[in-house]
Specification:
Blueprint lengths: L2 H7 L3 H15 L8
Length: 35
């Protein structure tokens, strides 16, 4: 994804945070300390 497409998909900080949270939730949230 180039920077222009990135800015189209994630125009602000909130949308970026929500997108990364959604991806993390799909993969499963795992504690790095206790696994």
């Amino acid at each position: 994804m180039n920077i222009l497409k990135f800015n189209e998909n994630l125009p602000d900080e909130v949308s970026c945070i929500l997108q990364f949270k959604e991806q993390k939730d799909r993969m499963g949230v795992i504690c790095p300390k206790c696994g």
